[in-house]
Write a structure and sequence with these properties.
- With about 475 residues, the protein is α+β, with helices and mostly antiparallel strands.
- Strand 3 and strand 4 form a beta hairpin.
- The longest helix has about 55 residues.
């Protein structure tokens, strides 16, 4: 069964880690215990030889209670205890009396644990009882015609039973306590994520007004703020696209309506044999078709820039030279409207850019100035630069100042100044803004006492841009 909940995954991971830790404890200490037993068993022949050597030198009478016998045996046991580093060491006589090394007291529970194995002991028998934390070697010895026994007891500082009680059990308890404390905290931490999931689902199903209120300044809070920024941008983009679609429909409908009206009038004039009017209406249709063609072309340019944010092929571009060429190209319009042109050029205005795109932006700024400048008006063109940027200013006289909202929206698609009936697609300045953004520059519009000033600023060299992943 697949675990999908994050809290369930964390709980499962915690349990698995705890189980793995306990298993590792058990395997490790069981292995060490077995290795210790093997080492002791391999040591039995050496210990047996040592015992025979020590006790063979004693001359013990059959009565073990004899004080002299006990003194000699105790002395040997004292030496053996030091050599073998045993905790307890004693001799059992044929009549079950016990002789220990001097000043040695054997615990009762140790004697009780070995009580059942004192009969019929084979040479080198190893007895281990973990529940009593006891390991012992029991050997028959040569005393009393081989009927005596010696017991060597080692109570290790570690044992599997001791470890299970003193180490594993507290580990389990600690793990459970940690789980009891941590799991509610995890659940509380994941609660904002569940809220975020609900908001994202609602947003994905079309409710673009969904927002999250960040509670803490942690990872979840930052994620919530990032979601809100993304939601704002997507909502703005969606609203912009809806407005763009409506504006495109409106802009296309107007010339189509005029074409339809001209076609009907031309058809009527043809019936009336008024061929001069027919030619007039056909010319009107041709003009509207050309206007439609320009509109579609600019829409396509704007769409391509939206889809592809990369600048494309770049090279050196002299903005002063470009402005001079644009002025010469527009000289017929300037002469027809009797516009006064004042130009101040800097000769250090070379930048790295996509020349066709920048030329399009400057051409649109120039066309906008010529379109809105009245007859006998004034246009002032200035180019200047500094170490990092190059700027072009185009001023055109205008009969009024723009409102603050108009200055902001003037670079949006299909934006027009209020109350103006000058023909145009409303996409020229939007293209200027798009080209400027792609070249990491700025474009602004400001009111002046007698007109409007546009300033386009571009960096001399483009910063490195990250290529989109395909």
């Amino acid at each position: 069964m697949e675990v999908k909940s994050i809290s369930a995954k964390l709980a499962t991971t915690f349990i698995l880690i705890l189980t793995l830790s306990l298993t590792t404890y058990v395997i490790l200490f069981v292995t060490v215990h077995r290795d210790t037993e093997r080492f002791i068993l391999r040591s039995i022949p050496m210990i047996s030889t040592l015992l025979e050597t020590k006790f063979a030198r004693l001359n013990v009478v059959p009565h073990a209670e004899h004080a002299e016998n006990q003194k000699d045996i105790s002395s040997v046991l004292k030496d053996l205890q030091k050599i073998l580093q045993a905790d307890y060491l004693w001799v059992i006589t044929p009549n079950d009396a016990i002789i220990t090394s001097p000043k040695t007291v054997i615990p009762k529970h140790t004697l009780f644990a070995l009580k059942r194995v004192k009969e019929n002991i084979q040479a080198g028998h190893f007895y281990s009882q973990e529940t009593e934390e006891l390991q012992a070697l029991i050997f028959p010895i040569s005393l009393w015609n081989g009927k005596g026994k010696i017991v060597i007891v080692q109570q290790p500082s570690w044992s599997l039973h001791k470890i299970l009680i003193d180490c594993l059990f507290p580990t389990v308890i600690t793990g459970l306590l940690i789980g009891i404390i941590v799991l509610p905290l995890i659940k509380r931490t994941l609660r904002p994520l569940k809220e975020l999931e609900t908001k994202v689902i609602n947003f994905a199903t079309g409710d673009l007004s969904e927002r999250i209120t960040p509670v803490h300044d942690d990872e979840v809070g930052r994620l919530s703020r990032t979601f809100n920024i993304m939601a704002d941008n997507l909502e703005q983009m969606t609203r912009f696209r809806h407005e763009l679609t409506a504006n495109i429909s409106h802009e296309l409908r107007s010339p189509l309506t005029r074409i339809q009206m001209s076609e009907e009038l031309a058809h009527l004039s043809c019936k009336q044999h008024n061929y001069d009017n027919v030619i007039t209406h056909l010319n009107s249709i041709r003009n509207e078709v050309e206007e439609l063609d320009r509109l579609v072309e600019e829409i396509l340019k704007l769409s391509k820039m939206d889809v592809n944010s990369q600048i494309g092929e770049i090279g050196a571009c002299d903005l002063t030279d470009t402005m001079q060429r644009l002025l010469r190209r527009n000289s017929p319009i300037i002469e027809r409207k009797n516009i006064s042109v004042q130009a101040t050029y800097s000769h250090d205005c070379v930048i790295t850019c996509n020349y066709p795109m920048v030329k399009l932006a400057l051409s649109n700024l120039m066309a906008n100035a010529l379109k809105f400048s009245p007859e006998n008006g004034t246009i002032r063109i200035t180019t200047f630069s500094n170490v990092e940027t190059v700027s072009v200013e185009i001023f055109n006289s205008f009969y009024r100042t723009l409102t603050p909202s108009e200055l902001i929206s003037i670079f949006e698609p299909f934006s027009r100044a209020e109350g103006e009936n000058i023909p145009g697609t409303g996409l020229g300045l939007a293209l200027v803004s798009k080209v400027t953004d792609q070249h990491q520059g700025t474009v602004t519009a400001k009111n002046r006492s007698d007109g409007i000033l546009f300033r386009l600023t571009l960096p001399r060299a483009l910063a490195e841009q990250e290529k989109p992943k395909r």
